[in-house]
TrEMBL record:
Signal peptide: none annotated. Belongs to the oxygen-dependent FAD-linked oxidoreductase family. This is FAD-binding PCMH-type domain-containing protein. The keyword Oxidoreductase applies. It comes from Promicromonospora sukumoe. Pfam families: FAD_binding_4 (PF01565). Its cofactor is FAD. Keywords: FAD, Flavoprotein, Oxidoreductase. The keyword Lipid metabolism does not apply. Residues 38-208 form the FAD-binding PCMH-type domain.
C-alpha cells in the first residue's frame, strides 16, 4: 500500500512531532539510519515526540493496512529489509531520562542513548549496563539483550528491565511489567522489537565504583601469539573481568587519533571491577608480552564508552556476528586464517568477546533471552562506502562463519546479527513461545522488528 492510503491530514493533526513524506525537503534526513549503508524507503516517517504520537502512528498505519517499524538510532537497521508498506516511527526526539537515585532505577524515553543515561546517572555514582558505544539506543540494545563492559559480573542489560511503557498493535498504550502482562514482558526482554513499540523503559542501575578499564596494544603481526595468550588467560579470570581479544586496522581518517591512524594492532580490551592490586596481578601475564601501549586506568561511566573506540557518529559499515560454544586453539587458528594479518580480508575490526560468568541464562527470572549458553561472541565489521566493499565484506564474513562452524553455537545474538538469515537468536521452544506472544498481541503482524518473529497461532 502507498502513503496515499494513509490519512495524512488526520495523522498530522494528531502529532506533537512531525510527519515526513516522500518528496518533502527533509525526506532524506528523516529516512536516514545511523547505519549509512542502509537506504530506507518507508511509506512515511513519523518523528515521534510523545507516546501519544506513537499511538496515533500505529492506529492510522494499521487503519490504512500499513505496518510500523520503530527505530531509535538505526544502528541495527541492516536486517530490516524493504520498508515498502511500512510507516517508520523514529523515536530519536524522545530522549528524556529520569534517575531515581533511591531506587537505583532509570526511566527513559524510547529515543534515549546510552550517553544520556550515563551522564544522568553519574552524579549518583550509578550506571546502566551500557554497551561499548555511547550513541547506541537504550531501547533497541536492551530489547536485544545488551552486552556491556560489566557483562560477566552483571549479566545482560535485558535482565535489569523492570517495566516498559508500550503501544501494542491495537493502538493501546500499556505499562507492561511482570504482573500486568507477564508474557509480553517476557518477550520484550531479549526477544527484540517485534511485539510492541516501546515508548519508555524502566530499568535498574548498578553502583559503578571505579572500575579499571583500557586497552593493551601490540603490532598486528603478533596477533597469533597475543590472542592465544589472551585465550588461555580468559580461563583464569574471575567474573569481575570482562575482556575482548581483537584485531583492529585503523583507517587513514582524520577522525582517528593521530597515534593510531592508519596503523593495525592486535589488542586486548578489558574492564575489571577488581581492585588495583588484583587487576595488576591478573594483567601481569599479558603485560609480560610487552604491549606497545597500555591505557588501563580507573574509569568513569563515560570513559568506559571510549575503550572500544567505536565510531563517533553514523558510518557506512557492514558487519555480522555469531556465538561460539568454545574457543580451543584450533578455533582461534581458524579465526586468524580468515581475519589475521596474513589473510586477504582486511576487516576493520574482528573481535572475540569473552562471555560466561553472570551471562549464564537465568530462565526463572529473565525474559526470552536472559543470557548465553555460549563461551565467546564474535563480531566483525568493515567500513563499506561503496557496494563493492559491501560485497567483499559479505564474502569475508561468509568465509569466517564457514571456518568457525565446528565451534559455532546453535543460537546467535540478536544485537550482533546485522544480516537476515543467520542462526536463530533463541532455541526452538523459546521461538515457539515468542511466536505465540506475537500471535496474541499482533496477529496481523503490524509491528515489524529488525529480527522478525512470526505469529504462531494458539
Ligand atoms: C558501534 C556499535 C557498537 C555496539 N556495541 C554493542 C555492545 O557493546 N553490546 C551490544 O549488546 N550491542 C552492541 N551493538 C549492537 C546494538 O546493541 C544493536 O545494534 C541495537 O539493536 C541498537 O539499538 P538501537 O536502538 O540503537 O538501534 P535501532 O536500529 O534503532 O533499533 C534496532 C531494533 O530495535 C528495535 N527497537 C528500537 N527501538 C524500538 C522501540 N522504541 N520499540 C520497539 N522496538 C524498538 C527495533 O526492532 C529496531 O529495528 C553495537 C552496535 C554498533 C553499531
Amino acid at each position: 500500500m502507498s502513503s496515499n492510503e494513509l490519512d495524512v491530514p488526520a495523522l498530522r493533526a494528531r502529532l506533537d512531532g512531525g510527519l515526513v513524506l516522500p518528496g518533502d525537503p527533509s525526506w532524506d534526513d528523516a529516512r536516514q539510519a545511523w547505519q549509512l549503508t542502509v537506504d530506507q524507503h518507508p511509506d512515511a516517517v513519523v518523528l515521534a515526540a510523545s507516546a501519544a504520537d506513537v499511538v496515533a502512528a500505529v492506529e492510522l498505519a494499521r487503519g490504512a493496512g500499513l505496518r510500523v517499524a520503530a527505530q531509535g538510532t538505526g544502528h541495527n537497521a541492516s536486517p530490516l529489509g524493504s520498508l515498502a508498506g511500512t510507516v517508520l516511527i523514529k523515536t530519536s526526539g524522545m530522549r528524556g531520562v529520569v534517575i531515581d537515585p533511591g531506587a537505583h532505577t532509570a526511566l527513559v524515553e524510547a529515543g534515549a542513548l546510552w550517553a544520556d543515561v550515563t551522564a544522568a546517572a553519574a552524579p549518583y555514582g550509578l550506571a546502566g549496563l551500557a554497551g561499548t558505544a555511547a550513541d547506541v539506543g537504550v531501547v533497541g540494545y536492551s530489547l536485544g539483550g545488551g552486552l556491556s563492559w560489566l557483562a560477566r559480573s552483571r549479566g545482560l542489560a535485558a535482565n535489569q528491565v523492570v517495566a516498559a511503557e508500550v503501544v501494542t498493535a491495537d493502538g493501546v498504550l500499556r505499562r507492561v511489567d511482570a504482573d500486568s502482562d507477564p508474557d509480553l514482558f517476557w518477550a520484550i526482554r531479549g526477544g527484540g522489537g517485534s511485539f510492541a513499540v516501546v515508548t519508555a523503559l524502566e530499568f535498574r542501575l548498578v553502583e559503578l565504583g571505579a572500575p579499571l578499564g583500557g586497552t593493551l596494544f601490540w603490532p598486528i603481526e603478533r596477533a597469533a601469539e597475543v590472542l592465544h595468550a589472551w585465550r588461555g588467560w580468559t580461563a583464569t579470570l574471575p567474573d569481575e573481568v570482562t575482556s575482548v581479544g581483537r584485531l583492529l586496522r585503523f583507517p587513514m581518517m582524520d577522525e582517528v587519533p593521530e597515534p593510531v591512524r592508519g596503523r593495525s594492532f592486535v589488542v586486548v580490551e578489558l574492564v575489571s571491577a577488581l581492585d588495583g592490586g588484583a587487576t595488576d596481578a591478573a594483567l601481569a601475564p599479558l603485560r609480560a608480552l610487552g604491549p606497545v601501549m597500555d591505557t588501563v586506568h580507573p574509569c568513569t561511566g563515560a570513559e568506559l564508552a571510549e575503550i572500544h573506540m567505536d565510531p563517533p557518529g553514523p558510518m557506512p559499515g557492514t558487519g555480522d556476528g555469531f556465538l561460539l560454544d568454545a574457543l580451543p586453539a584450533e578455533a582461534l587458528d581458524a579465526f586468524l586464517s580468515v581475519v589475521g594479518p596474513e589473510a586477504d580480508f582486511p576487516v576493520l575490526s574482528a573481535e572475540i568477546r569473552h562471555l560466561g560468568g553472570a551471562l549464564a541464562p537465568q530462565p526463572a527470572a529473565g525474559g526470552a533471552v536472559s543470557g548465553f549458553d555460549a563461551a565467546f561472541a564474535v563480531f566483525c565489521v568493515s567500513i563499506t562506502p561503496v557496494e563493492a566493499a559491501v560485497k567483499a565484506t559479505h564474502r569475508g564474513l561468509d568465509a569466517l562463519s564457514e571456518v568457525m562452524r565446528p565451534w559455532s553455537a546453535p543460537t546467535g545474538y540478536l544485537n550482533f546479527a546485522e544480516r537476515a538469515g543467520g542462526a536463530p537468536f533463541a532455541d526452538p521452544a523459546t521461538l515457539d513461545r515468542l511466536g505465540r506472544v506475537k500471535a496474541a498481541y499482533d496477529p496481523a503482524g503490524t509491528i515489524r522488528g529488525n529480527h522478525p518473529v512470526a505469529p504462531v497461532p494458539a
